[in-house]
Amino acid sequence: MSLNVRALGLLLGFSLAPLAGAYELLHLESFKLEADAKVMAGFRHGENINFGLGAVEGFGSLKSTGEQSRNDLQMAFKPGLQFDYTRPDYTVYGGGTGVFSTTTLDGELSGQFAHRGDHATKVDAAYVGWRNEWLDFSYGAREFTVGDGFIIGDGTFNQGHDNGQYWTGAFTAWRNTGVVKINTNPVRADLFWLRTDADLGDSRIAGISVENSETARYGQLGFLYFEVFDDNGRNGFAGAEVTGVRAAGLHWPSLPELQFFGEFVAQRGRDDRTGAKVDANAWYTEVNYQFKQLPWTPKLYYRYAYFSGDDPRTPQLEEYRGMFFTIFKRDWDTWYQGEIAGEFFLFNENQISNMAKLKVFPSPRTALGFWYYHHELTTAQYFGLPTQYLEWTDELNWSFEFFASDRLYWYVGAAWATPGAAAREVFGKEDQTVVQTFISYTFR
Predict the structure, then answer these.
(1) What are the CA-CA distances from residue 140 to residues 41, 94, 177, 229, 376 (Å)?
(2) Cα–Cα 20 to 30 A to 220, which of 23, 152, 354, 421?
(3) Using CA atoms, how far apart are residues 145 and 149, in angstroms rounded to an integer?
(4) Which residues contact 433 (CB under 8 A, 6 or more apart)?
């Protein structure tokens, strides 16, 4: 234990050390080489883990270890290099990142995703690209997201056995990509081929995203289509044909304080493993309004999200698959919905979620957030385990965020959730609480 505490102190001390200077390693006329490094650490304490069932022995397990209370410390160091070679008509660029990560103390709270002693030393991103004024082509392992990451977010599901940690989300790149960005007006497009990590089936995806280029006046509308060609028979993604339409930041120019977000995704095709027809849907609608004339400029949000569940009475597969969703593209709730339900239990399939949120901004560099979630199952089963009821949980989240600079970010949060009838059938009957903090610093 003392070794883990010393490691945390050393890591945080390094992350808060003063910046010595710019990390421009080399600059020779048209060629520039730069370096950066990001340090992340997250600590969580949980009581009545898994609604009182206790931490479980692993992913997909309902066998309890008997631990009702846990402390979890996850840390990661992520150095990176970037270069660009600029000519009058084009730029050649590239980069890469590595990750050194570990999970300590008792391990990830729920017991599913990372265990004490898990660690990883791996390459995350490694890519090259070419771009000019309107065309951008890249190849290799790198980040790529469509919209706010509702279904195409990132290709890594961070788990301890492979990535050394879970909650810090240190790995963000797809294992491989080929992306062509066509940056024209008034419409732009992305053509993409993507490959996930092994936890997401080493899946291969190819598709297209189209959206309007100018967003300041009215917001953005987009269209998405992709197919999953392979998942090594692991996740049931292969064979899916996915179509989606989305809206982001829609508003009237004279009333920019009121904004609308939404997305509809239809999953069709046939499951390559079974040949069963896929007929699943998901959608959400969100409205937010900011009172810019009031002290602390409060912002109110409401979101309704629906993810279809399977009907065992039919031969079709109606259960929507969350696939490749990510986190924090707009806030903590996109797309892990709740620090308890969204982190441990419900992963954007077979669920209906209502979210109400208030955020206030006491200063330009601080924010306070308050969330209420109501989750229920769409159909009476939990990942294939039949239930009699649909009600899953009511949950409250609280957060304080400090945006000290574009390099230093600090978060403190707490969550409380009470199990509904369906959750009590599967897990326990006790209210669960989590307190947590996360800090990151980027040297650049």
Answers:
(1) 27, 9, 5, 18, 39
(2) 354
(3) 6
(4) 46, 47, 48, 414, 415, 416, 417
- What tokens were used for 322? 């969350």
222 backbone φψ class: left, alpha, beta (φ>0; ψ -120 to 50): beta
Sign of CA dihedral 415, 417, 423, 424: positive
SS3 273: coil
Helix (H, G, I), strand (E, B) or coil at 33: strand
Cβ neighbours for 28, distance < 8 A, ≥ 6 positions apart: none
User: Of 80, 6, 9, 75, which Cα lies nearest the Cα of 39?
Assistant: 75
d(CA 317, CA 308): 10
Mean pLDDT confidence for 102-118: 97
Q: How confident is residue 233, by pLDDT bands cut at 50, 70 and 90?
A: confident
Contacts 24+ apart (CB under 8 A), 59-62: 59/112, 59/113, 59/159, 60/112, 60/383, 61/111, 61/112, 62/426, 62/427
Supply the CATH classification number for the domain 2-443: 2.40.160.100
CA nearest to 229, candidates 282, 278, 270, 180: 270
Cα 271 to chain centroid, rounded: 25
pTM for this predicted structure = 0.92
Contact between 168 and 159 under an 8 Å Cβ cutoff? The reply is no
DSSP code at position 324: B
Q: Print burial letters for 47-68: b (CB count within 10 Å at least 16), e (below 16).
A: bbbbbbbbbbeeeeeeebbebb
HEC profile for 364-387?
CCEEEEEEEEEEECCCCEECCEEC
